[in-house]
Amino acid sequence: MIDATHIDDNLKVVIRQVPTKTDELPILLLLSSPSLQADPRNCTVPILDIIILPGNDDTALIVMPMLRDFGNLTFRRVGEVVEMFEQLVHFLAFLHDQNISHMDFCWFNIMMDGSRVVPKGWHFFDQLSHDGISIGGFEWVDRWSVRPVKYYVIDFELSQRMKSKDSPRLFVGSWGQDRTVPEMSMTTPSDPFKVDVYQLGNVIKKLMTNYIGLDILKPLVDAMTNPDPRGRLTAQESSKQFSILRKKCSTRVMKRRIWRNEPPLPPLTSLERFFVKHFRYNPIN
């Protein structure tokens, strides 16, 4: 994966290698079709171009806009998290409506369009630097001040499209970043659609752990991360329950400040103290 610049309009893009033997490319092409792109729930990362490599049938290159990790800039208001959750939960229902299970709907596969949040732009490999060289002086604005912020889901490498709603939808093994899914097993099949719901719920649960002031989301998140998949909400149910929750979120609630819940840091080791003193090393990062 590498960053690049689209010459015609100076757009920052990312070029990624995709194996042609998986379902990733056909799924991305389907989700990027005009009819599905017209659905406002669709948060699939846009595919700007596909580059076929001469003499190579195993790999193709896809070109995407350069996006930011969603979580490395601080959330400051309830509404900022609600806005993200709203887009993602409706997208998951949309995805399942197409009989597609993402199978890795996890933290590092959720991105944001940071063009208005970071007007000066950022470096691909150092997202807290404008140019990848300068240290400090990184400028950004609250998401709330430039809302709505658009979120996207990437990495469909593990994704599967079922033939129909009636076809078997069970898989064995572990997949994706989140290894806390209770029903994942090397011997007992699990429903990947229910796993998707758990994974998204767990992303929001992690945010609720990282920030103080998001208790309003707890009932829905608990229902999405129910340890028993039979009692867990489906994506469609989660989407409907969120719509009910959203109606309860007044402007006052949405503007309410939230704060990072940062536990005390452990004492630095002697080696860390050496690096802090001589190399501006930050043990938090």
Automatic annotation (TrEMBL):
PROSITE patterns in alphabetical order: PROTEIN_KINASE_DOM
Molecular function per GO: ATP binding; protein kinase activity
Entries under InterPro entries matching the protein: Kinase-like_dom_sf, Prot_kinase_dom
Domain Protein kinase, residue spans: 1-285
Name of the protein in question: Protein kinase domain-containing protein
